[in-house]
Amino acid sequence: MKIKAAFVEEKGAPYQMKTLELAEPQGFDILVRMVASGLCRSDYGERTGNSVEFPNVLGHEGAGIVEKVGEAVTEVKPGDHVILSYGYCGNCKHCAEGHPSSCTDWLAINNKGVNKRGDYVLHTEEGEPVNNFFNQSAFSTHCLVDETNIVKVDKEIDLRLLGPLGCGLGTGSGAVFSVLKPKAASTIAIFGTGAVGFAAIMASKIVGCKTIIAIDINEKRLEVAKECGATHVINSKNIDAADEIMKISANQGMDYVIDTTGVPTVMTQALHSVTNSGTFIPLAVTKKDFQLNTFFDLVFGNKKIEGVLIGNTIPKIHLVNLIDFYKKGQFPFDRFVKFYPFEDINQAEADSLTGEVIKSVVVIDDTYQAPN
């Protein structure tokens, strides 16, 4: 079938609207009419050459409505509302143990441009293959995904809001809920107040952390951070954040520290803010390195660094839980979402990169009627 997609011809090229051919569903495939998709920093990173092949249709924070399913699909039917997350095999040791983001085939399924059967599902009108992303390519009017990609949601929530739960918001909250699992009255610092950072702040408030420090150089975002649960904010533009954290914590440091920036100097400050026996989670998608001394930075003080991909959660459970928190007013992510027409995707990305907008969402189906 013919679809319209935000096509990226080559590394660094801007998004351009293009008509493509999308394969028909078979087996565990699900055809989804896209309503909207969030723009994640990862999309920018991939568009500018992190890891994927080109040409490509990016986008991995999609939400839409099921139109057609393959003969093996049992979880959803046409008309169901779904959020899209990453794909996984469902059969390996890690998937069986409840850690699908550790799937043995995770990279092959999500970053190699083909589906789980090894097929290109996207082609140009001339028949040339086009790589997909995250087994979804949400920047398009329709997606062909696997049953593992989808999270069924109720129809009373505005679908335009829900896509970002599938990556950025699910990542920040999952790092807190599923990995750190802070005890009540714990302390935490979050470096960077984008969507991932805000999700971590709100999750930290939900679990009862007594001290929640948000660090950024954007004063407007820090104001929002206070509204979302931060007990302290630090504008690190002209001061050393690690020194300020030590002052706030009476020179103890924080039980948990999350970095969402991927900036080496910031990651070093973040690590130096961790208390003895504390944990540091670097969450950013980055190709940059930062240096540490394994003895003085980790062994001395029993400190830990933990890698976390997409929150290390089970999306089909975690994302539904986040919606429940949203309904209760505990996870008010809608306050920092800005909608853009699909055709303005390049501007949506630009506004996100400058920090003007915390979470840009492109509305792909402008005929969608949000529930009252």
Automatic annotation (TrEMBL):
Annotated Gene Ontology cellular component terms: cytosol
Keywords: Metal-binding, NAD, Oxidoreductase, Zinc
Cofactors that this protein relies on: Zn(2+)
Molecular function in Gene Ontology: S-(hydroxymethyl)glutathione dehydrogenase [NAD(P)+] activity; zinc ion binding
Annotated Enoyl reductase (ER) domain residues: 12-362
CDD domains given in the database record: benzyl_alcohol_DH (cd08278)
BP-aspect Gene Ontology terms: formaldehyde catabolic process
Alphabetical list of InterPro entries matching this protein: ADH-like_C (IPR013149), ADH-like_N (IPR013154), ADH_Zn_CS (IPR002328), ER (IPR020843), GroES-like_sf (IPR011032), NAD(P)-bd_dom_sf (IPR036291)
Family listed: Belongs to the zinc-containing alcohol dehydrogenase family.
UniProt-recorded name of the protein: Aryl-alcohol dehydrogenase
Taxon lineage: Bacteria, Bacillati, Bacillota, Bacilli, Lactobacillales
